[in-house]
Structure formats: C-alpha cells, structure tokens
Amino acid sequence: MKESLNGKLQLSEGYLAFVADDAKSCNFVLPLYTVRRVERINSGTHNFALSILNWHQMKLILQINGHKVTFEKFCNTIRDNLKNQVRYMKNLRSFLSTCFSEALLVDPKKDISTGGLGLIFGFPGDVKKLRDRYKTKLWIEYLQTNGRNLTLVKVPYFSKLVRVGLPNKLRGEIWELCSGAIFLRFVNDGMYEKLQKDNAGKVSLSTEEIEKDLNRSLPEYPAYQTKEGINTLRRVLTAYSWKDPELGYCQAMNIVASAILIYMSEEQAFWTLSVLCDRLIPGYYSTSMYGAILDQIIFEHYVQNKMPLLYEHFQNVDVQLSVACLPWFLSLYINSMPLLFAFRVLDCFFMEGPRVLFQIGLEIFLINSAILKINGDELLTITDDGQFIHVLKKYFSTLDQPAHPNNKNQKIREITKFNELMMVAFKEFSNITTESVIELRKTHQFKVIHNIESFTKRGQIRNLKDTSKFSKNDISIIYDKFYNAQFYGKQKSVRNDSRMDLNTFYRFLGSISSWAKLDDENLTKENGSPRDNQGRRLVGYEFIHKLFIHFDQSQSGGLTLQDVICGLGKIIFGDLMSRIELFFNLHDSDLDGYLFKEEILQMSESFLFIFRNRNDDGHLGSVSNFIRNAFEYTDSHNLRMSLPSFRMVVLADGYLEEFFDSGFASSFQFIEPTEERSKGLGREIFNALMSDGMRLAEKFGKRINHAKPKSHIPSSPDQNNSSNSNRNDMTSHVQSLESSNNNAESNYNDSSSLMPRNNSQDSFISVESQKSSKMQRNESPVSFGSDEEDDGLMQEVDRLLSEFSIDENGKKLTFFL
C-alpha cells in the first residue's frame, strides 16, 4: 500500500499510534517492541521524515511537519523508548505462534493447534453457505499488504471485510485485535496461568455462582454438553473472578464468555472478557448493572426522537422497552438471535467498540434501533409487554429468510432479513455518533445512579427481619452510614463481600458516636492488639473490637446491616440492667461469668475511653470509686467479681448509674448532615473510577517518583495513545482524586487516641483495694470544686490503677490520659 495520509501521530513509552484526519481512512497502533529499524530519510516535500521497518518487514514512512527542535525531541524520545522495549522482542516469536494469521500466510491449508472450541467441536453454520474459504482468501490478501496481528494497519477495506463476516478460524484473532486485548495478552504473558495456579482449590461467592450457571451457558452448542467445554468455561470465568475480585462474577458473563470461547483460546478469551468488562461495557456486569440500565435510557431517548409515533404508542399502552431490550444489551444479542447472526453482530461490535474508555458498542445500539424501525408497523398494534416480546422473537427467528422473496431480481431475493437489518443499522442511523451517546450518558448517569440506590435501599430495608424498634428515618440513616463507611473503607477492607469488617466498623461507629472516633495514624499491631507508634496498647480499638464481636452473632468475621441494627437496638432500646449486663459480658473474655483483676482493670480503661471527651472531670472520681469498690467486693480468694456484684458496684455510683441508664444510649446520634446525603450517589461508579485511578497511580507513580523508565512494561494502546505529558497529567489527577478521598476519610477519623494531658509522662492507672465495711457512693458525681481538687482526683486515679497494674511477661498494658 503506497498512499499518503495526513493525520495525528502519538508516541508513548510502548506504542506509536496514528489516526488519519479522516479517521476512517487509516489508523494503526504499532507496539515499539515490533520495530526492527528506524532511520532518518530525506523527503522532497517535508523537512523531516522517518522510515520505520516493523517485525513483518512492512515499511512506514512518517513525514513530520514542525520545527527542528520538536523533531529532534521526537527522535530522541522514540530512540530511548525503543531501547526500553528491546527486552520484549525475545517473547515475540513464541507469542506470534499463537496467532492464526501467522500460519495462514505460510500455509492456508495447515491446521492450527491453538484456538477456540470450534476447532474441536465445529463452528456454527455451513462453511459453504458462509463462503468461509472465499473470505479467508480476501483476508490473506489484506494481511499480506497491510500487516497482521500486532502490526496491522486498518484501512477502509478492513471495515468492509469485517462487516461481511469474519472467517471462522481468523475471527478470534480479529476480535482480540480490535478490542486491544491482544496487547494486554502480550504484556501480561503468563498471568492467566498464574491466576489459576495461585487460586487453585479456592472457593468464593463468585465461584459458587459460576458453578450454578455453567450448564446454562449456550447449551445448544455441542462443546457445552461435555466436560471439556464446561471445564474450559469454568477456568476462564474463575480466573477473571480472581483477577477482579470486586466485580467477581455476574450473570450474563457466562453467556458472553461461552460465545467467544468458540473462536478463542482460554487466554485470549480471558483478556477479551477483561476488556469487555473494564472498557467496552463497564457497569454491565456489576451488581446493579448501572451501565446497562443507563444505556437503556439512551436507547429510549433515540427511539423517542427517531420514531416518535412508535414511542408514543408504547407510552399509551404502558409497554416497557427494557423488558425486551435489556437482555439484548447484557448478552450482546447472543441469547436473542441465532448464534450465526449473533457472531456477525460481535464482529461489528469489536470493530466499533474500543474508541473510548467507557464507550459501549455503538453498533449494538444501532441494530436495536434498526429492529424497531423494520418492525415498526407490527409493533404499533401491540397492547402489552407479552405481545411486544412475541413480535421481536418472531422476527429474530426469521433472520435467515429472504427479506424480499417475491422480487424479480435474484440478487435482491438473496438478501436475508439479517442483511437488511445490518444495512438499516449502518445507513439509516449512521448519524448516531459516539459523541452523542457519551453526552447522553453524562446527562442521565446521576439520575440512574440515584434511582438504583433508592431501589436498592428500599429493598434492603424492606427485607430486614428485625428493625429493633428503630424509626424509618433512623433505619435510613443507619443504612447510609453503614454503606458510606463501606465505600470509604473499601481500599483497606480485607473482605470482598457486603459484610463490614472490623476496620470499617471503627469508621462506622465513629460516624454515629463522638466517643468512638479513632485516629489510626501510626497504628501498628502487636500480637493482634492495636498499638501506637511507641508500642502502647490503644484501649479504644480494643473496646470497639469487643462490640464488633458482640454484634457478630453469626461469628463470620463480618457484620451485615441486620447485625448492626440488632446490636445497636439492644443498646439504645435496652434498660439499665441489660446495658450493665452488656458491659459485663463484653469484658468477660473467657465467658466464665466472672471478671478477674485484669478484666476489671480493662473495664475501667473502657470507662475512661468513653468519658475522655466530657467537659467535666466527674468521671475520674467515679472510675476511682468503681475500681476501689470492685476490688473490695471481689472474691478475696480468687479476686473475681460476679454479675450481681458488678451491678451493685455500678449502682453505688450516681455517675455510672446515669451512664448506664441513659448516657450510653444517648451517645449514639442518628443525624445525617445535609452535605453527607449526596455522598452516597454513585458509590459503585465512583468506586470503579477510583479503582482505575489507583491502578494508574500505582503503575505510573513509581516512574514519576523514582524516574526509572526502564522498569515500565508497556500497557495496552487504549491507555498509551496519549502523550507522556498527558499521562503525567492523568497521574496527577488520579493522585489528586486519591488525596481528595483521603481528606473525605479524615472526616470520619477525628482525633481518637487518648493523648497525654499537660505533656506529662504517660502512666498506667490502677487501684489500691482496702477493705471497708461500707461502699462509698458518689452523691454528686458531676459537681466538683477547685482545680486543685481535680488534680487530686487525677492523682488518686493514677495511684489506684498503678497499684493494680498488670504485668504480662514483663510488659505493662499502658493507657494514656
């Protein structure tokens, strides 16, 4: 091919990309590890020119307009980047041996050893009727002229070849190439096998769901009636669930994966599925399917504008387009039309799809519109959803029939309904652009997110078995607080399900009670116990951990919304005696019905932790009295205190009695600030964006911070088509987002450690027990005298606790005031 084209050239660390001014004329993405030689040449029409020879001996001439300084900078950059990519060239031969196009150009009749299930169980359709051999011949001519696999150049003839249908053996490679998955597979060599090896034998919620759907995946195809086909599908879906545990697995993924496995090897299908879920149709296979629902709104918008009579009729008879159309989008038509035609749709989908990161296949939308256009007259007669579905199913079942059987022209009679469908999609609706779809998504996305969250919230609250006497408003606030804590704590969470782990519970409890706000900066763990940077035990974390265990009735290590509501309900709607018993049980670590010396001291620490932010110092005297009276009324032989004795000690102190009677329950406030109400919108979308941002930051942050360009592995062209400066800007933007998220997290983590007062030496407080015949009751727990009296109480508490300090293997349990 000798043709001059004007366009834009972009260079990244791993790729050289070109797009003609008329994007349909020519475009290519050339990995730098496929470049054999770059030379400067003299050009009669341009000041600067480069000759690039790629791996397949195809020469590209780049004539560059611009200043000499710019050209020199470009040359120096491409030289340095080429040096960094040389080490990847050693993998090229083995990788290209997995590409059918290599064998096709050597010997078209030679059988290939690697590929999809179709090589073993046969491909759908009649090879002769599909004219597979003739299509293969056309592709051989194209690949010989325009490169192949990693070095292929797309010219207008490429799209024509794709639209008439791909040859069976070449289809998987073209899908992989168009989607960009081929580049991911090369730079992540061995990752698929590693995922399988590292997670062999592991079980998760996703793997359990996968097992349920395996036998429902294209049962009409012979491979999925055998163990070989089922095992192949299981490995691909399971590997993806471990690669992206946040998404894991969702129904309909099995349909798409089973379809592409007919034409692709396991590794090819794995990376193509990754591109589908991450870039082409994001949000389709999430828990809420927000991406698919959003595109349904866009679809209805186009129907309303382009077929107003049909749309108005649907509105009048209350027919929902999504009843029939949502399954089309989720399964990419694989479940809606005969496989032979569904694969033709996928041919166009992969070719048109990967233009932007969050783009959804435009062709799928166009074909949907075309279906309604063709069947418009019949659809105007329907009166309910059932008739609507019946009309469309009837049409899909006749796609192989002639569209005009009575026409005198034989060529026209040979046009099938499917061919007519494709022509309508590409011609009559060609004015539907990617830009218009993206703009509509921006317009409607927050409405969709809000509706999904409202529906999900109502459903979860309705399904609660026990609301523990909470009002609807309180339940709503607890729900929001629960999932806000889940959202902001997800990066640190060790769980992949919807249960709340301990770290997130710290955040959640701090959002509804001021005494529970903790500061986890410089936090370390020693023998499982949270400690500060000086190794001192942090009492607040231990007390909240006790509450977490108490709330976790199923002992699963995580809390559901139901667990949290029941746990809080027992505290807030319980009575004086039940709260006293709760505190006793929280500190009875061995559950023997007694508190020993160590447990009594830990309870005193818990009291001081909860009371630490109170304006008065009445709690100091109360804790002092509690410790004194507790040890006075313990069993003198075993130094242990029973629940009745504990009740008597608490009720002997007015301050503690008031705390258990009302103070503890009233410390939980279910008030949602106005600014927090908007935080819940779009958690799932923003979480996906943040995950992408975190991955980008992790990938490029090291290069920016440490300036080690040689350490970079090239990524797919979708990520690398921008200039280096643009990617630096993106990295900065991602870091800014991360910083913003951290600032938001800090709202939940106000100062929580019990800091030393007056900068004095931290000390552990204990109590000295002296038997007396009468318990001392603090009659006026809140009212205290001068500052000197307050200091005296501090000293008394300090003296009492230090007397009974606990030394375990020479280590003191420290607590600071």
UniProtKB/TrEMBL annotation:
Domain of life of the source: Eukaryota
GO molecular function ontology, one term from the record: small GTPase binding
Pfam family, one: RabGAP-TBC
Region named Disordered: 706-791
Bias-annotated ranges (Low complexity): 714-729, 736-753
Positions with biased composition (Polar residues): 754-783
PROSITE patterns listed in its UniProt record: TBC_RABGAP (PS50086)
Domain Rab-GAP TBC: 165-353
SUPFAM superfamilies attached to this UniProt entry: EF-hand (SSF47473), Ypt/Rab-GAP domain of gyp1p (SSF47923)
UniProt name for this protein: Rab-GAP TBC domain-containing protein
Species in which this protein is naturally found: Rhizophagus irregularis (strain DAOM 181602 / DAOM 197198 / MUCL 43194)
